[in-house]
Amino acid sequence: MAIAALDLGKRRIGLALSEDDGAAVLPLDAIERRGLRADLAATMRRLEHRGVTLMVVGLPLNMDGTIGPAARAAEEFAARLREFSGLTVETCDERLSSVEAEERLRELPGRRGRAKPHIDALAAAIILEHWLKRRDGRV
Predict the structure, then answer these.
(1) Which residue, 133, 101, 139, 113, is CA-closest to 7?
(2) Contacts of 56 (CB under 8 A, 6+ apart)
(3) In this structure, are residues 117 and 83 in contact, taking their beta carbons and an 8 Å threshold?
(4) Nearest Cα to 55, choosing from 29, 27, 81, 33?
(5) Per DSSP, which regions of 10-138 are E strands?
(6) Reduced to 3 states, what is the DSSP secondary structure of residue 66?
(7) Ranges assigned E (strand) in 37-113
(8) Which stretch of DSSP H or E encloses residue 6?
(9) How far apart are CA 9 and CA 98, in angstroms?
(10) 109 vs 47: CA distance, rounded Å
(11) Does the N-terminal or the C-terminal CB of the chain have fewer CB atoms within 10 Å?
């Protein structure tokens, strides 16, 4: 069984995966956004042979914890993904995940991996790391 995380951006959806035990979280890919139906289909195509049983969608709350337009859009996407896939879909607070991803990539030697799709996939991995910590009571 695997768990997937999604970082929803305006232009791309970052994807990450982990086995249910959470031992390793791996950035997977980023999908260029093309519209809701195409985004849902592309997401499922990328995950179809990976044994995903649960998906976590990043919820971009405002810094004060309130729900703004971006968080409402993420909740709507999560609901549609649940309907489309038939899988369990949860949301997870993702405040500052992209900032953390950029910081992690800056720490790497050289300039490799700093392209936006890499940041989006790493942001999805960070969302999944946070979700796993909360699930396991480590937060």
Answers:
(1) 101
(2) 3, 4, 5, 6, 89, 90, 91, 92, 127, 128, 131
(3) no
(4) 81
(5) 12-19, 25-32, 52-59, 88-93
(6) coil
(7) 52-59, 88-93
(8) strand 2-8
(9) 10
(10) 30
(11) C
What does the block give as tokens for 34? 């093309």
Tell me the whole-structure pTM to 2 decimals: 0.87
Alpha-carbon distance of 31 to 29, in angstroms, equals 7
Size of the chain in residues: 139
CA dihedral 79, 83, 85, 87 (to 10 degrees): 70
What amino acid is encoded at 1 in this protein? M
pLDDT tens by residue, 79-134: 999 999 999 999 999 876 666 777 776 776 665 545 666 788 989 999 999 999 88
More confident residue, 73 or 20: 73
Residue at token pair 């720490």 = 107
pLDDT per residue as tens digits for the range 55-85: 999 999 988 989 999 999 999 999 999 999 9
Distance CA 30, CA 13 (A): 5
The amino acid present at 67, given as its one-letter code, is I
Phi and psi at 65, nearest 5°, equal 90, 0
Pairing of strands 88-93, 52-59: parallel
Q: Can you list the domains of the chain with their CATH numbers?
A: 2-135 (3.30.420.140)
